[in-house]
Amino acid sequence: MAVHAADYEELRILMNLIFLLTISTREEEEEEREKKKEERLLVILRDELQ
Prior knowledge:
Keywords: Coiled coil
Number of strands: 0
């Protein structure tokens, strides 16, 4: 079975898309963790001020 250059190009594009989606997901997860930390700190500050 012959493998054509177009097959390699499609595979390369798919691998790049998977890589970019993985990075995007990790960034979103990190942003969500930071948001939760900020919310916890705000609750602590609010409780201390009351």
